[in-house]
Amino acid sequence: MKILYAASEATPFAKSGGLADVAGSLPKALVKDGVDARVIMPLYGDLKLRDKLEYVTNYSVPVGWRSQYCGLFKAEVNGVTYYFLDNEYYFKRRGLYGFYDDGERFAFFSRAVLETLFYIDFTPDIINCNDWQTALVPVYLNLYYRHLDKFNRIKTIFTIHNIAYQGKYGTDILEDTCGIGRRDQHIVEYDGCANFMKGAIETADKITTVSPTYAQEILDPWFSYGLDALLREKQYKLCGILNGIDTEANDPATDPHIAFNYDVNNFEEGKAKCKEALQDKFGLDKDGSPVFAMVSRMVGMKGFDLVQSVADGLVDRGIELVILGSGESQYENFFSDLCGRHPGRVGTYIGFEPALSQEIYAGADAFIMPSKSEPCGLAQMVACRYGTPPIIRETGGLRDSIHDCTLGEGNGFTFAGYSAHELYDACCRAQDRYYSKEDWNNLIKYDMECDFSWDVSAKSYEGLYNETANLW
Ligand code: GLC
């Protein structure tokens, strides 16, 4: 089975969010299972590990009525071949997205993915596209390549990592920039806009999302950002597969960034040392209080408004808080201010600092993730692996991966309603449990033994790939 995994970011080369982790770790797991999975992504100006890249060739790619240069490079990491598409005009910029011409940049990239197949000795059975940036791949495949021998058997899967970002533009970009003529524009038009994700939902052979619960949720207007009606119509080809995490890169036994390495046999000593180091770093009191932490982009979707409502209350109850992230200024300001108001009780770091995040996963006692919506979420799984029980709201992949331990077997503390009271209550339950040493240690052990590796989910993808390849 040959899979081309098309993504706009993938570790270890470029990352802005969870998509990069998945694009870096799922293909690796597939290759380990004997699947020939290769990744294709843009060659960004600030790409990491540039010295690993090897030039292959170059060609022209149609972008509307023009032709643009495309250079092809490749590299091999962890047994996975990565292809990089180079065009400095589009990709030699600081950062990955957020430019005025993102629509054109990723129309180019999507078209270039297909053109590349003329120049490499690899014809995939399936192209697995991810999010709006690669959503035009199945559209272009059907419109312009399907009649060619090389392409007529290729199937496409479109994976939605976050339905909030659809690639929406004015319809005027369709003909001139995307090269999609009047007759075909209905494929990508939705609600009076050009909508790349809509095009993929129409044309891909299968649609997947990153957790079973999210696959249900996006059929509902509360979660769908306007696409529920279309998705209900296409439900026959929709399914959800829970992401895994890279258990080698996220391993407290080998993690070079944490104060003391530990595993399930010596976590008591290990976590205590990591906690002390964390408290020292943030100037927190070492008086036996539990440390609850959050590592997240500071945006509304992640539930920061709930945390904001309960933060002072939690500190008053004797819980220390550590918050790392950046994003909307209202939250950045609130948590900086909270830190100033509670010296020795709250630590705030505004920014993203991968090494410090790992120190927090290891040193915190519990991990807060009260998202309003969470397609999958990886941080809660990483927290478990580091023996840091998550406190989560039951949505998307959080609901599928974390189960409440209050009344029975479980790996964390959960609540259902999007309410500050329920979050507060879940935090109190976690704090009570924390003071019962034996129960808490049993919970940590249980969490560290949860299997969030790709072993299970990669098999689900393989099943789906086989089913899709055999479609008519
Ligand atoms: C997006 C989602 C997140 C998911 C990740 C990887 O970032 O918001 O929930 O874990 O993609 O699929």
From TrEMBL:
Alphabetical list of SUPFAM superfamilies matching this protein: UDP-Glycosyltransferase/glycogen phosphorylase
Any one Gene Ontology MF annotation carried by this entry is: alpha-1,4-glucan glucosyltransferase (ADP-glucose donor) activity
Its EC number(s): 2.4.1.21
Answer yes or no on keyword Transferase: yes
Swiss-Prot/TrEMBL keywords: Glycogen biosynthesis, Glycosyltransferase, Transferase
Which pathway does the database say it acts in?
A: Glycan biosynthesis; glycogen biosynthesis
Q: Where is the Glycosyl transferase family domain?
A: 285-426
Q: What class of enzyme is it?
A: transferase
Which segments constitute the Starch synthase catalytic domain?
2-233
A Pfam family hit: Glyco_transf_5
What does this gene product do?
Synthesizes alpha-1,4-glucan chains using ADP-glucose.
Family, similarity comment: Belongs to the glycosyltransferase 1 family. Bacterial/plant glycogen synthase subfamily.
HAMAP family, sorted = Glycogen_synth (MF_00484)
Task: Write down what this protein is called.
Answer: Glycogen synthase
